[in-house]
Design brief:
- The chain is mainly alpha-helical and 256 residues long.
- The protein contains seven helices and two strands; from the N terminus they run βααβααααα.
- A two-stranded antiparallel ribbon has the order 1-2.
- The longest helix is centred in the N-terminal third of the chain and has 46 residues, at 45-90.
């Protein structure tokens, strides 16, 4: 049976596009902010004014894009994913969206199925975040090294250092790296706790197991909302076959 994921098609693809646009705007604004420092206002007043206007317009667009992504596109996608997850687990219709083959477990108990689906999601989130962090760590380290070298050179323009600091400590470099590390760490915690829950063969008719499952579900949802990191679809598709095989081996071993 072919996989169907209307949540991804209808909500995560627009989010990916918004993030791509934001990435381009970030670097264009960064380049313009640095470029304006090297234009002699006295010698080239018209060019300087045009660069300033372009910088202000694009900075405003970047701000609007960032707010739209954080307050509209990301929450909308996560809300629909959560509603579809609960619909899948409890066999109810909380949303008009549909997924087929997105969650892979054979549980019929609604809460146990929810816990198994969260365990699968955290497994994939953890592994994809690990792959993403390879490039993110290298990029962040590279920018930090360049910035430290610039600081150590006394002839470096102070205004240039100020702009470089704004770029380095923006949402797209150090902050993004820290949020990605946090997402990986917290996803790992949820996965390990659910692994212990299932390996302990606890009955989900018991209040203790039910409360743990709900707590871990909430913990993971809070983690995703706070980190606000969109996982790479390119990395997912590249490693999906291997990760799916690993997950199937794990769930078979645990009997889920």
């Amino acid at each position: 049976m072919p996989k169907v994921d209307t949540v991804g098609d209808n909500f995560y693809k627009p989010l990916e596009l918004a993030e791509t646009i934001g990435g381009w705007l970030f670097w264009i604004v960064s380049v313009l902010s640095i470029g304006t420092l090297f234009v002699n206002k006295s010698a080239y007043p018209e060019l300087s004014n045009n660069l300033q206007i372009a910088f202000l317009v694009l900075a405003l667009l970047y701000f609007v894009q960032g707010q739209a992504q954080k307050l509209y596109f990301f929450p909308r996608a996560e809300d629909n994913r959560r509603q579809e997850l609960l619909s899948n687990s409890y066999q109810v219709s909380l949303t008009g969206e549909e997924t087929v083959g997105y969650y892979n477990n054979d549980q019929t108990n609604p809460l146990k199925r929810l816990a198994a689906s969260i365990m699968e999601s955290t497994f994939f989130t953890r592994e994809i975040a690990r792959k993403m962090l390879i490039g993110q760590r290298a990029t962040t380290l590279g920018y930090v090294v360049i910035y430290l070298i610039a600081i150590s050179v006394r002839s470096t323009n102070l205004e240039l250092l100020t702009v470089a600091a704004q770029v380095l400590f923006s949402e797209d470099i150090i902050s993004r790296w820290l949020r990605m590390e946090w997402l990986r760490l917290r996803s790992e915690q949820v996965y390990q706790n659910l692994h212990r829950l299932f390996s302990g063969k606890q009955s989900f008719s018991r209040v203790e197991a039910q409360s743990q499952a709900i707590d871990l579900f909430s913990f993971y949802e809070t983690t995703k909302a706070t980190a606000a990191i969109l996982l790479s679809s390119r990395i997912f598709h590249k490693h999906n076959a291997r990760l799916t095989q690993e997950w199937n081996q794990t769930r078979t071993r645990l009997g889920i």
